[in-house]
Amino acid sequence: MRRVHPLKFACLALLLTAPLTAFAVGKCDRVIATGAADNPPFLWRDPENPKRLIGASADLLKVITDSLGLKLEVLYTGGPSKALDEVRSGRVDLLLDATLDVEKLAVLDFVHPPVAPLQTVAWVRHEPGFLYAGRDDLAGLRGLVVKGDSFTDAGLQLRSAPDLAQATRSLLKQEADYVLHERYSAVARLGGQGLLDEVQRLEPPVTSREMHLAVAHDSACNDPWLRGQLAIKMTELRAAGVPRQLLSENLLRWRDQQSKPAKTP
């Protein structure tokens, strides 16, 4: 008997169960989205079309918009602050990787449930003997974070490194005791660079916050119908395990792209 891929089955079920009114109600028939452009496996620039963003978050929104009969464009607009500015202005309808804070609440309607947790975890050398039950066990140890990461904690001794690869190499040279970095981003980047087997992730996470879809207040597409449909579809897809499956698929997608030689401009 031919087996049906669980993700394809979940997406097909979502399309078949979409209410008939979904194709007739709402103020727009096209949604433009953006987000941070350098955050694999959630979002990154398409090597084949750098004006476009691809990744797990883009794929998830595509499943939702397809089920609602909406066209979707996921565009590169710059770094996180630039992406937020474009959504705040209403030129872009939806932010794919919004985290809750007061500033964003003033300009965005957040969709619940969230897409996925963003977990800052401690990575250490792959060797026995590191006793860890929580963030307090990192006090007094030498930590590294990637320059530009927003994590700050006065109780930890943290230095910055230019990128995750250099931070990890410093860790392996015993120039640091741990590296703090988002869980899935570290798996994507270290896996693509052949460093993932050299380190191990400590549990529980040092911090955790939720990532949401968020609709701009000034978007022409922002109406109660669309916000309600986004919430319904997110609930259904999370129950079917689709966001986690898309993360796994895009980790492999990113790793495969990193193994290919760069194209000559």
TrEMBL record:
Keyword Signal: yes
Domain Solute-binding protein family 3/N-terminal: 36-164
Keywords on record: Signal
Pfam family, any one: SBP_bac_3
Keyword Membrane: no
PANTHER family assigned to the protein according to its UniProt record, in alphabetical order: AMINO ACID ABC TRANSPORTER SUBSTRATE-BINDING PAAT FAMILY PROTEIN, MEMBRANE-BOUND LYTIC MUREIN TRANSGLYCOSYLASE F
Similarity remark: Belongs to the bacterial solute-binding protein 3 family.
Name listed for the protein in its UniProt record: Amino acid ABC transporter substrate-binding protein
Record organism: Stutzerimonas nitrititolerans
Lineage: Bacteria, Pseudomonadati, Pseudomonadota, Gammaproteobacteria, Pseudomonadales
